[in-house]
Structure formats: C-alpha cells, structure tokens
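Collaborator request, handled under Task 6.
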Amino acid sequence: MAATPQDDRIRAHAQAKWVRTSARKARLVLDHIRGRSVPEARTVLAFTTRDVAIDIEKVLRSAVANAEANHGLDGDDLVVEAAFADEGPTLKRWKPRARGRVNRIRKRMCHVTIVLVEKPEQETPRRRRAAARTETSAPAAEATPKAKTRRRKKEAVA
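Structure tokens returned to the collaborator:
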C-alpha cells in the first residue's frame, strides 16, 4: 500500500464490548457521526432519539479522553475517522407459545469502536468557478445562443 501524508497522523481509539443492542441498530447511529468533528458528533448524539446513542456517546468521550491523556491532543480538534459496530455474542432465549411450541428470542450484542484522528491541515482553498472565468480572455456569455435569444426578446419587448 502506498504511504500517504495523512498516514502519520496520531490516532486514538476506544471500544465498548458487549453493548446490549444489535449491531444493525448501532450502525444506524454511527453512520451519522462518521467523518464529523468531535463537537459536531457530540451534538448529533445528544439529539438522537435512539437509546444506543447514549452508549456511543460514552465511547466517544472515552476516545477523546484517550487522545488527551495518551497523546496530548486537544479534544475539539479531532475528527471521527472510523466508527463501526461488530457483532458480539447472541443470548438465545425461548418463549413458550400455544400448543406446546416455542419461539426463539435472540438477545444480540455488539462491540462499538470509534477511532479519532487530528483534523487535516487546511489546504489552499480552491478557486471558485466565477473567479476562474474572470481570468479567461473573452466573455463567453455573449457567444452562447441563450444570451443572443434573451437579447432579441428584450429588444422585441422594448
């Protein structure tokens, strides 16, 4: 694999194992915070109505504390690089049903992992298209057929 300049950034991670929710439900919330800054992610989790958001917020706080304590980073300058939920063990329970039958109840668990990384350095801002057009030579708006049609319509009205 080719090394990129971003590979040398410091990473901090935290993991919560055996969280009592399914990995599928946890992934729905984790998709909202992946790629966001830590303050943004905290805000999103605070206003998420799913119960698993509380557990994910604890993992995020732990990852920020790990970054501050172990690497001396500022928590507000971090970005959620990776956030994923792996399946854990499943507790199998039985529910009695009519006529001697049973239904299986699966109580699923997951392992939630969050990886934080420093914000990338600000690159030079890209120029806007309008600024790039002004640098070109002839005005292109007059040469287009639409501009000619508009001009004819204005002359016809006047």
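The cover message to the collaborator said: "The radius of gyration is 27 Å. Residues 74 and 145 are 55 Å apart (CA to CA). Please let us know whether this matches your experimental observations."
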